[in-house]
Design a protein that fits this description.
Length: 201
Amino acid sequence: MAGTFANVARAIATHLATAPTPAPLATDLLHLRQAAERAVPRDGYAAAPGRDYTAILSPALAAARGHPAAAIAEAIAALPGPLPWRYSYQPRADLADIAERIAFAELIGPQAPLIAPACRVGFTLMAPDTFYPLHAHPAIELYMVIAGHAQWTTPEAERIVPPGAFVLHATNQPHAMRTFAEPLLALYGWRGDIDTPPFYL
């Protein structure tokens, strides 16, 4: 199965090689593209059983058709098994069902199906009408939306981000996301301190 994960990485690298590169994002886009280009299958990788997010992922993949990153969605859809989806935050009483509505799947990283130096690359999946509360992490994070229009909020700005667009989060910059009628599927890349997990604020 690892070879098929590599097909997803190749789709990411191919897309980023031709995507417009806004000057402020050049370093992070290059890092993300090189991670996807250099990723190799992890020997003996076996995905641990996890929650089934098909009900959210399938409509997100369908919605990606015709959008700029459709080839990445097609590569995910072609996988014979699921990405390693999980919800990685500690439980919160005020967010009782959030683990059913938000998931993360690391494609490239220290414990992921593919490995590359000094990076984490994966996907964020959110159900419609879901709020991902304010959070932060030391890693510098670049997001690219694959499917869905979602609201991104930081202390500096608030905007609706469409498919194909990028969002950059600086080290420890607080940010939150909200979906509306559509699910969100977004690619993320981490660089810098990739070992400290994210935390809610």
